[in-house]
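Newbie here. two chains, one complex. Structure please?
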Amino acid sequence: MALSNQTVAKVLSEIGEYLEMQNVPFKPRAYEKAALTISGLEEEISEIYKKGGLRALEEIPGVGASIAEKIEELIKTGSCKYHEELKKKTPVNLSELTAVEGLGPKSIKKLYQKLGVKNLNDLEKAAQAGKIGKLEGFGKKSEENILKGIEFVKKSGGRFILGFVMPEIRNIEERLRGLKAVEKIVVAGSVRRRKETIGDVDILVVSKNPWPVMDYFVKMPEVVRVLAHGDTKSAIKTKSGLDIDLRVVPHKSYGAALNYFTGSKDHNVALRQIAIKKGYKLNEYGLFKGKKQIAGESEEEIYKALGMDYIEPELRENIGEIEAAKEHKLPKLIDYGGLQGDLQIQTDWTDGSDSIEAMAKAAASMGLKYIAITDHTKRLAMTNGLDEKRILKQMAEIDRLNKKFAGRVKILKGSECDILKDGSLDLPDGVLAKLDVVGAAVHSLFNLPREVQTERIKRAMANSNVDIIFHPTGRIIQKRDAYQVDVEELIVAAKKTKTILEIDAYPNRLDLKDEYVRKCVASGVKLAIDSDAHSSGHLHYLEYGIAQARRGWASKNDIVNAHPAEKMLKFLK
DNA sequence: GCCGTTTTCGGCCCGACTGTTTTCAGTCG
């Protein structure tokens, strides 16, 4: 229970990186792959182990006898000897250093051995002193890039990617919900607003008997520090570094407290100003006229008393939602669970870890009606991208599987086709025309000048076979910025060419980001919400794509895959 | 270290790009 999937994944991927330092062949990839799958598992790995032991662990794709044993050791003892030994040889803060774009295991090893660089701080000092540029194999440019990378890591430091920490948060929430003394529980704050990244977690509880709740909370096995322990507020830090506040509020203030702790701050300030204008006072205990509480038990009654419609948490950023709520002009947001299909899925034909069949099975069990198989294409050689011959073979395989899955889930033929430097595509038009869904994506030359990059993607859009642009800006949250591209111009071009833009639901992509989603919605450009799953455990990431769409004010009608397959296909070219 | 309708042993790791070099190592995903 105490050991999160993220922690297991981190240890495994560190083992992979240490092996990479020693030039061990093949093993690094095996560890990396297992880590990727585990980080996407919905079920806690300790639960899987508790239920089915080693054998259940080995059933996880990419996990064999050896890695299963290491996971067992981790669950039982909290550490892994093999990992510790590797770490002794190069005792560096790997996750800190690899977060710097362009720094990999080999460079980290060199920097440690030559300059004693162990962490980000050492790295920055060495770079600023000009020591790195003088090192063999490095130069001035490398040093500059490292400094830039450090800047970026610092900017995003201390925050967590929502989709990656949500399983841990939900696990804690569920355990607290199971306590007798807990009447109501909800996770508020930026988690409830579904921000891409969160700084800490605010949990709200209604209880007449707070002590047992607080006591349980501060003694949970994952707690490494108790920062506060009172009867209305306690705060802890968990092993994974997450700060969690727990507040107990009285029943009659529940709505007001929820509103206050959900934020955003700007939204709350605007609400309080409206309350003042109406002669009221709004705080975390309720909405008051003089000393009399006129609302506060629920959020709905507060918004109503202030003369507006209820505002969904994802919209509370004070960027027009309050005005819209007053005029009853808020959109009806797409529902969680409102998707019928998923249009970007990778399989073991390229860099995914599951077969087409396994993905179809998982999609069916999630209630999806259709999926598009969109493996990489040949230019992306590192993923064993598909060429003309192999994609035709894959299409035949899909035909075969569709017979098997008839009535359960429809498998569409697709591609994540590489956009080449000049905007042409990595597969001939004749092949693309045979596919149901063609997604096109940029995977190279991220640093072209803005106009060139924009033209490149526009040219891909102009291809009558291209239905969707996948992850249109290429950003990876906390790792690298979007490439330079004029998104507004892309939106105009998308409208003109009837090209769909994707909201990539993978938690560290969520690209398009909310403000661009909103612009698409305003311009009538259709969107797709796709998991970008590389294993069946990633399909549930769709939830975070829906959250992103909601924060961009999108309704069901804006999202092509919120519709049945026949209707969705009509939106395509 | 994982995997198997080509296999329980022998494949898997392919290529473009960058920044260092003057022919190549490291990173990307």
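Moderator note: Chain A has a mean pLDDT of 92. Chain A is about 45% helix and 15% strand. Thread marked as resolved.
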